[in-house]
Amino acid sequence: MSCSCGKRLVSRRWGLEDHDVGTFLPARRYFATLPVWVRDELRRPYFGSPSVGSTSRGMAGASRTSGDCWYTYRKRWDTSRVWRSWAADEERASDLIEETVGEVRAAGGGRILWRTGDRVAPPFMDECLARHGFRTTEKLEVLAFLLVKGQEQRLPRIRVPEDLSVELVRDAEVLREALFVDSEVFRSPLPTGGEFAKYAGELEKLLRHERGEHFRGGASLAARFAAYVTSSIASGAGSPRSIVAAAGAQVVGETLRLWGAATCQTFRGRGAYGALVLERCRVGTHLNATLALVKANISTSGAILKRAGFRPVGTERRHVLEIQR
């Protein structure tokens, strides 16, 4: 995303007041009211997915560019992920699906997760996937929140319970606990040494920023966050604090991307998710982010975010096919 001083005057260019006239606008009309730089950011390859030209080759290949385009992450947890897809018509979409399934099966893959939605797939892709045995497992909204108003920073309207605190993860032991929460909630593999080494590199970038160094345009920084509650509230364990939820965030240029929020089953519904959203946005403003983006489940976290001031700008659906070997 190119930088311009106009971004700092985003609310003047947008012409919105505190109450946000976009509150009652459908997503497409609301999208049209966003500043040009925000719309450009949302048109980039879907945040969280590989960018065009840099897709890593996984067990089922990397990308194709002929009549059809599709992008996948490399194999993760025995799942091949299709992030973006395009076909001129349903017949070509069907060919693309069959070819993708065949390649994944030939490579020994067991599962495909295919994403559709605004600006990432043609509107008929959902029905084509269903005809090939995919089942829709999740419906998400893409939500946006402007972190600036004129020259002032602004944060989501979220109240954090007094017995809850959120911190940016800065050491290996806390990172280990946060990743254990991820493993419990998402049923993902336990953390590896590579993850710790990679996060150490991100912390080094954060420390340089805190010493006064500035990011170059387009530079990124990823961070993990942990939510704590006193042991008497959580589980009665001997530790004075227990991690009950964890989440990640990445600042890319002036955009804060929120991802990976996980809350322990016993503490859901007690404010941990909202607390993580608020702290990640607060840290993001210190890292010069002016726009927060997040994907949220329509029936759960989406409602929390909308009450906090986030506005829908797109949709995503996730479809899964379990491959018979």
Structural commentary:
By secondary structure, the protein is an alpha+beta fold. Among the domains are: 63-141, Gcn5-related N-acetyltransferase (GNAT) (Aminopeptidase, 3-Layer(aba) Sandwich); 148-289, Aminopeptidase (3-Layer(aba) Sandwich). Helices cover 32% and strands 30% of the residues. It has ten helices and 13 strands. The protein has an eleven-stranded mixed β-sheet, sandwiched between helices. Strands 6-7 form a two-stranded antiparallel sheet. The longest helix has 18 residues, at 193-210. The protein is globular and about 55 Å long. The N and C termini lie far apart (43 Å).
Task: Produce the secondary structure layout.
Layout: H1 10-14, H2 27-33, H3 36-43, E1 63-65, E2 69-76, E3 79-86, H4 90-106, E4 111-117, H5 125-131, E5 135-146, E6 148-149, E7 152-153, E8 164-168, H6 172-186, H7 193-210, E9 220-230, H8 231-234, E10 241-252, E11 255-263, H9 272-286, E12 291-297, H10 301-307, E13 311-322
Parallel strand pairs: 3-4, 11-12
Antiparallel strand pairs: 1-2, 2-3, 4-13, 5-12, 5-13, 6-7, 8-9, 9-10, 10-11
Short description:
The chain is 32% helix and 30% strand. With 325 residues, the chain is α+β, with helices and mostly antiparallel strands. Among the domains are: 63-141, Aminopeptidase, CATH 3.40.630.30; 148-289, Aminopeptidase, CATH 3.40.630.
Give the CATH topology of the domain at 148-289. Aminopeptidase
- Tally of helical runs: 10
Q: Report the β-strand fraction as a percent range.
A: 25-35%
* Overall CATH class of the domain at 148-289: Alpha Beta
As a percent range, the share of helical residues equals: 25-40%
Low-confidence stretches: 1-27, 45-61, 65-69, 233-238
Number of strands: 13
The separation of the N and C termini measures 43 Å
CATH architecture of the domain at 148-289: 3-Layer(aba) Sandwich
Specify the structural class: alpha+beta
Q: Tell me about the largest β-sheet.
A: 11 strands, mixed
Sequence of strands across the biggest β-sheet: 1-2-3-4-13-5-12-11-10-9-8
H/E series, N to C? HHHEEEHEHEEEEHHEHEEHEHE
Approximate shape = globular
Rounded to an integer in angstroms, the radius of gyration calculated over CA atoms is: 20 Å
Mean pLDDT: 78
